[in-house]
Structure formats: C-alpha cells, structure tokens
Amino acid sequence: MNLNLILLEDVAPQSGGWSGLLMIAAIFVIFWLFFIRPQNKRQKEQQKFREALKAGDKVVTIGGLHGKVKDVKEHTILVNVGGDVTIEFEKSAIIPDASQVGQA
Q1: Which pLDDT belongs to residue 41?
Q2: Chain CA centroid to CA 13, Å
Q3: 16 or 79, which is more confident
Q4: What is the pLDDT of residue 104?
Q5: Strand bridging mode 85-90 / 58-61
Q6: How many Å apart are CA 2 and CA 31, to the nearest integer?
Q7: For residue 58, what are the contacts with CB-CB under 8 A and spacing of at least 6?
C-alpha cells in the first residue's frame, strides 16, 4: 500500500511552474494598467499645467488657498490671494482651479 502512494506522488503533475509565472505576469499587467499608467498620465498633465502658468491664471494650492497668479519664476510663483496680499509658492504646490477644469 505504501509503495502505491509513493509511486502516485512521483507520477502526479507538479503544480506551479509556468502557470504560476503566468499568473504573476497577469497580476503585474493588471496593476500597471489600472494604477501605474493612470498615475503617470496625471503627473504629466499636472506638469504641463505648471509649465503653462502665466499671470492672471486662477489656481488653488494643495492647502486650499484660491488665488490668481501674479508672477511666475523658475521654481516658484507669486499668487495674489485677495486685496494686496501676495504669497510665494513652490510650483509643485499648485493645482488647477477646480471650477476651470474642463472649460478649455
């Protein structure tokens, strides 16, 4: 009886192999399609927006301050947030004004 079990274990196909490798590849492809690719696309759009900033554009900071661009420098911009209050922000802290999105 024990001899039959030993022989059956040797004859049984090994699990894993190519199917396991294909499953990992499929998971990576799905992860890339649904997470990595859209994030890269968003980052490129935000970079284009920041490069195209000019005086008079309405913007929102990542902290929620709304204002108009007064001046654009190499790495920073000056934003008028009301009256004669102007604050300097890093370009990376600026997002498009949500009310202007889709109105191009």
Answers
A1: 92
A2: 43
A3: 79
A4: 43
A5: unpaired
A6: 46
A7: 66, 67, 68, 69, 97, 99, 100
